[in-house]
Amino acid sequence: MGNHQSTSILESKKVVVVGGGFAGAHAIRHLQGKCQLTVIDPREYLHYSIGSLRASVQPGFEKNIFVSHNEAWGQSFKQGRVTSVDPEKKVVILEDGEEVQFDIVVIATGSSVPFPGKVGLNVTTSAEAEELFKEFQGKIKTANRITIVGGGAVGVELAGEIATDYSEKEITLINDKDDIIHVSFKEKFRQKAKEQLEAMGIKLILGERVSNLDELTTDGSQPCSLVKTDKGREIETDLVIHAIGIQANCDAYKDNFADKLDERNFLKVNEFLQVDGYTDVFAVGDCNNADQVKMATKAMNQMEVLAQNVKALVDNGEMIPYKEETIMTLSTGRNSGVTQFKSVVFGSLLTKKLKSQHVFIHRFWKETMGLDLKE
Ligand SMILES: Cc1cc2nc3c(=O)[nH]c(=O)nc-3n(C[C@H](O)[C@H](O)[C@H](O)COP(=O)(O)OP(=O)(O)OC[C@H]3O[C@@H](n4cnc5c(N)ncnc54)[C@H](O)[C@@H]3O)c2cc1C
User: Fold this and answer.
1) Domain shared by 24 and 78, yes or no
2) What sequence ranges are listed for the domain FAD/NAD(P)-binding (predicted)?
3) Of 69, 119, 239, 319, which sits 20 to 30 A from 166 (CA to CA)?
4) Residue to substitute in 22, 68, 86, 329 for testing ligand 1 pocket (most ligand atoms within 8 angstroms of CB)
5) Is there a single domain that holds both residue 156 and residue 267?
6) How many domains does the chain divide into?
7) Any ligand 1 atom below 6 A from CB of 358
8) Same structural domain for residues 232 and 283?
């Protein structure tokens, strides 16, 4: 009886999710049919960024990484850019002035990194987005010497992808830290990744910062340009790729929640993923400050917790806390990689099966989006 009653209360509630990325996709999975759900995103597609680096190198793969919101989500999807979330009037405001009412709002606007990690928020059609990757594949193909700036997961995976398909190219990865990947991962994890890159002939320059980043174009239009580091090193290169600089997509919330932002503009949330000081405003995924390392798996796990907490909120039930868990699969191309599950580290054998071969693409289309891959 209790359960039945609480479901019907939730059914009458308008839940608006701002952002149709990985978190938004899991809102559909866990909340569609249980409440009046609307997911709003300015783009007609979900960008499967986990496949961006494969799509940077492998012609045709770009078709797999943009999934139509309309096809997957139907009536629950609304295309539009949210410019403001008003917690007093309980509306989100779109850039054309339209107001969408909510009982509960979930901010899930994610983050941006330079292309090819993610595509700009202004690229609203999948045709445009696919074209960007096709052009980029050509740039990688023609460049003999490639320098990747940034030794986090994106830089490492990209170096591995390029080296796998183009073993003859001179690839250099520069990181300002003395190691690669985030320090929260085990030393063994980072060591294995380094060994894999070096075995592929990738040159690692660690503990040096690129000092002339502003002078370098990243579109391959300056062949033979000189990348300089703060230790006086100079590297001749044909293509510079940025794999640095994650930024919060905060345009939708920065004005009304100015006092709820951390120093990098991510929304401060409590353990139940409610924005600091609010009951009916939640923030999920990359745009909040819940995790040390921002990952799609965490965004999706958070949305699962959120779905239960939204139900608990309308039902006067008990909310459950979100707990960060360490699980990371890092591919260094199609044939190798490293996985850390809690504190155990696995090498290429497992990682190749889990991720490196297909970057989870079939599972994502089928299980998360409920569609067949276009291939
Ligand atoms: C190259 C690369 C590889 C990665 N590989 C992995 C991996 O292997 N495993 C893993 O777990 N994680 C991986 N990640 C991290 C993962 O991509 C992010 O953690 C994930 O995208 C976060 O999901 P999200 O839904 O919070 O945000 P996003 O995916 O960034 O989605 C946010 C959505 O909000 C929308 N939005 C933004 N502003 C507005 C607005 N004003 N109004 C309405 N909508 C708005 C955007 O259009 C976007 O669709 C990778 C990231 C990159 C860049």
Assistant:
1) yes
2) 13-302
3) 119
4) 22
5) no
6) 2
7) no
8) no
Tens of pLDDT, residue by residue over 232-245, are 999 999 999 999 99
**What tens-digit pLDDT sequence spans the chain (375 residues)?**
444 554 569 999 999 999 999 999 999 999 999 999 999 999 999 999 999 999 999 999 999 999 999 999 999 999 999 999 999 999 999 999 999 999 999 999 999 999 999 999 999 999 999 999 999 999 999 999 999 999 999 999 999 999 999 999 999 999 999 999 999 899 999 999 999 999 999 999 999 999 999 888 877 777 778 999 999 999 999 999 999 999 999 999 999 999 999 999 999 999 999 999 999 999 999 999 999 899 999 999 999 999 999 999 999 999 999 998 888 999 999 999 999 999 999 999 999 999 999 999 999 999 999 999 876
Measure 168 CA to ligand 1 centroid, in angstroms: 32
Report the nearest-CA residue for atom 8 of ligand 1: 50
Domain ends where: 211, 243, 275?
Answer: 243
Mutate to test the pocket of ligand 1, among 96, 109, 288, 302 (most ligand atoms within 8 A of CB): 109
Whole-angstrom distance, CA of residue 74 vs CA of residue 93: 21
Q: Which domain holds residue 179?
A: 144-243
Residue among 95, 295, 331 whose CB has most ligand 1 atoms within 8 A, to mutate: 295
253 & 114 share domain: yes
Question: Which pair of tokens denotes residue 194?
Answer: 């380094």
CA nearest ligand 1 atom 43, residue? 41
Q: Is the CB of 114 under 6 A from ligand 1?
A: no
Q: How far is the CA of 142 from the centre of ligand 1 (A)?
A: 29
Nearest CA to ligand 1 atom 48: 21
